[in-house]
Amino acid sequence: MSKREKPDFYAEKARKDGYPARSVYKLEEIQKKFNIIRPGYKIIDVGASPGSWTMYALKLTKGSGLVVGADLKPMVLRESYSNFFFMQGDIFKEETISFLAEKGPYDTILSDAAPATTGNRTIDTGRSYSLVEQVIGLSGPLLKKGGSMVLKIFQGGDEKELIDYMKTIFETVKIFKPKAVRKESFETYFIGMSYKG
Ligand SMILES: C[S@@+](CC[C@H](N)C(=O)[O-])C[C@H]1O[C@@H](n2cnc3c(N)ncnc32)[C@H](O)[C@@H]1O
User: Fold this and answer.
1) How many CB atoms lie within 10 A of CB 21?
2) 110: Cβ below 6 Å to ligand 1?
3) What H or E segment, with its residue span, contains residue 30?
4) Ligand 1, atom nearest to 113 Cα
5) pLDDT above 90: residue 33
6) How far apart (Å, rounded) are the C-alpha atoms in residues 179 and 190?
7) Domain 9-74+92-195 adopts which CATH fold?
8) For the chain, how many helices (H) and strands (E)?
9) Active-site position among 3, 145, 152, 196
10) Does position 194 have pLDDT exceeding 80, yes or no?
């Protein structure tokens, strides 16, 4: 087993807490600091599979509001929830956005989506940039005025341009690297709050 695969503190904790991925503790840290999920909120989770962030959002919304998970891969949660549905496929398609817009607007858009990686940092950060740019583009049709957005991004590319753009559409923008991010990882999170609409 390589060092990367060895279960660490967070992987063990996720197993014990019943979450399919350790990434839930990144969202938990973000939530504790920025309070972007509340009971009754409507939330979209982009890149939701295998489902830890969605499960955490469902726990915090307390059976009210709506949580929509979207991913290219399938996702099956252990329990069923009346305020949840999953969409497999490309969330950026026009018809998907129109369908989601009918059920919106949303209080929070979460994106832990990560592109397929090659190991080449330039290519990977470029792909991450494009993905984040597309997720930011969902704010216009889907995000409520005053809403928030959480975005995962690979550092080392032109991410400052994205931050600068986010500052034009959100009142507050923060860069936050949770402790649960693996030491060797170059990912970080952008948090946009109070969407200007
Ligand atoms: C790190 S995983 C997300 C883990 C998830 N937040 C959890 O806690 O279980 C990243 C996911 O992003 C998805 N993804 C990548 N590109 C995507 C896209 N264009 N649309 C939707 N999902 C995408 C991948 O399929 C992958 O499942």
Assistant:
1) 17
2) no
3) helix 24-34
4) 12
5) yes
6) 15
7) Rossmann fold (3.40.50)
8) 7, 7
9) 152
10) yes
Arithmetic mean of pLDDT, 58-83: 95
Q: Is the shortest distance between the CB of 111 and ligand 1 below 6 Å?
A: no
Q: What is the DSSP string of 133-174?
A: HHHHHTHHHHEEEEEEEEEEEESSSSHHHHHHHHHHHEEEEE
* Residue located via tokens 């992987």: 11
pLDDT single digits (tens) 128-162: 999 999 999 999 999 999 999 999 999 988 889 99
Radius of gyration over every alpha carbon of the chain, rounded to an integer in angstroms? 16
pLDDT band at 7 (very low <50, low <70, confident <90, very high): confident
Residue 134 identity (one-letter amino acid): Q
Could you confirm whether 16 is annotated as catalytic? no
For 33-63, b where at least 16 C-beta lie within 10 A, e where not — what string? Answer: ebebbeeebbbbbbbbbbbbbbbbbbebbee
Averaged pLDDT of the chain? 95
**Residues pairing with 69 in the sheet:** 45, 86
How far apart, in Å, do the first and last CA atoms of the chain sit? 48
**Domain residue spans in the chain?**
9-74+92-195
- Whole-structure pTM value: 0.95
Distance of CA 150 to the CA centre of its chain: 6
pLDDT at 1: 46
